[in-house]
Amino acid sequence: METLFTKIINKEIPADIIFEDDLSLVFKDINPQAPTHLLIIPKKPIPKLSDASEEDKELLGHLMWVAGEVARDLGLDETFRLVTNNGAKAGQSVFHLHLHLLSGRPLQWPPG
Ligand code: AMP
């Protein structure tokens, strides 16, 4: 099923894209929860992390690598949080796998 993020990947709706390669896209969250709030998504439409299959292992690793690269490029490498909400009860609202990268303010633990 096509989500909002597929439309962003296909450039059918605008987004503030800060990184793109053949497998992934990184753009600013429209409703930021921290001074820096990025979404790291695969171009492959996997609904959520628990839907990923064994063949996605490399892709999942790639997303983590991209997160680290982008954080380094933005000078965030010392302090950021990477999180994925898996399922509606965990707060997931867009069913296209994404990692939230949050930085720029103190981050509490445990999260809400
Ligand atoms: P989640 O609640 O974990 O599924 O996260 C979905 C995120 O997508 C939320 O933080 C939203 O603010 C964000 N979002 C929704 N629509 C857009 C959009 N058009 N551009 C950028 N971020 C969006």
Automatic annotation (TrEMBL):
<protein>
    <submittedName>
        <fullName>Scavenger mRNA decapping enzyme</fullName>
    </submittedName>
</protein>
<dbReference type="InterPro" id="IPR001310">
    <property type="entry name" value="Histidine_triad_HIT"/>
</dbReference>
<dbReference type="Pfam" id="PF01230">
    <property type="entry name" value="HIT"/>
</dbReference>
<dbReference type="InterPro" id="IPR011146">
    <property type="entry name" value="HIT-like"/>
</dbReference>
<dbReference type="InterPro" id="IPR019808">
    <property type="entry name" value="Histidine_triad_CS"/>
</dbReference>
<dbReference type="GO" id="GO:0003824">
    <property type="term" value="F:catalytic activity"/>
</dbReference>
<dbReference type="InterPro" id="IPR036265">
    <property type="entry name" value="HIT-like_sf"/>
</dbReference>
<feature type="active site" description="Tele-AMP-histidine intermediate">
    <location>
        <position position="98"/>
    </location>
</feature>
<feature type="short sequence motif" description="Histidine triad motif">
    <location>
        <begin position="96"/>
        <end position="100"/>
    </location>
</feature>
<feature type="domain" description="HIT">
    <location>
        <begin position="4"/>
        <end position="112"/>
    </location>
</feature>
